[in-house]
Amino acid sequence: MGFLDMLYAASMPILKVLIVTALGSFLALESIDILGQSTSKQLNRLVFYVFSPALVGSILAKTITLKNIISMWFLPVNILLTFIIGSALGWALLIILRPPQHLKGLVIGSCAAGNIGNMMLIIIPAVCKEKASPFGDSDVCYKYGMAYASVSTAIGMILLWTYVYNIVQFFSVHSQDSGNNVVASVNETRTIEIIKESTPQLASSNVPINGKPKQVMLDSIKKHLGSFSRQFYLKAVFAPPTIGAVQYFITLDLDAAIPAMTLLVGGNLLKGLKGSGISLPLVCGIAVVRLVFSPIIGIFIVKGALHLGLVHADPLYLFVLYLQFALPPAMNIGTITQLFGAGEGECSVIMLWCYGLALLSLTLWSVFFMWLVA
């Protein structure tokens, strides 16, 4: 397969993503307001809770067998390695550039978590359907490529909402501690006063148990259960990956899933044009980590695994493993920053630049990866 053929096969999927992404940004403009803030939020929920998990579940149900699971055991290991390596590079970036405390979680998360979900589900089928694809029959390529992409999406989603979520939460909480100590002390005092005032009333209307009113004990139990669920964010961890297979049995047209994902990327990137106070070296550092250093390290890891016989020499499978290291930061990091109010504007700028540069880097890396596996 010639260089021009590989360049064509690699660039056309990225070009398609660029066109639909630009359309999403256009629809999100205030003057157009078709994909405005409220619409984008509702569509984002629909994609996250319905389209994406149902698409993943339907593909897994059709393609995954015990033999496939055994043969692709290195896939989740590879994804875990992308998070570990990205985190290490992110820590190095923190030491060099010393960003503000509330941005440290955003920096580590952006370096650690690539968009293994949406981008894999967009790029892999597009590559398979190209006539110049080096991966053989388009139908077979699509079948197994989407299986690899679906497993990647499920694993990446779990790691994102466990590891990255808690990293951002940790730094956002610690950045607020010093400024909120006085306010917290006042609030705590006032809360104690309110409890003292209300306890006699509760005690008069409830039967005491060991000197404590029933209602007070029930409220305490609810509070601790709520704190436990928030700490581990069980809903985010288990909901999309585990309900996808169930949703497969519901009558649902999944053809809109990938276009909807791509439109949302464009709408979300538009927020980055408004700018923020984040430094340019920090944005460039994250982009270099995700789009340059990570794929270079990934080449050595996959090559090493192939040399040791840990992975089978299937060109499509190897291409997916390489590609996992070269993806821009996960878009859901923006959702996580919104939850904690820590670096939401800065995250939009990071995403804008990383995805803009990724359109070029993904094309070049895809050509190189195709050359490696061909």
From TrEMBL:
The keyword Nucleotidyltransferase does not apply. GO terms for cellular component: endoplasmic reticulum membrane. It comes from the Eukaryota. GO terms for biological process: auxin-activated signaling pathway; endoplasmic reticulum to cytosol auxin transport. The chain crosses the membrane at residues 6-26, 46-64, 70-94, 106-127, 147-168, 256-273, 280-301, 316-340, 352-373. Involved in cellular auxin homeostasis by regulating auxin metabolism. Regulates intracellular auxin accumulation at the endoplasmic reticulum and thus auxin availability for nuclear auxin signaling. This is Auxin efflux carrier family protein. It comes from Artemisia annua (Sweet wormwood).
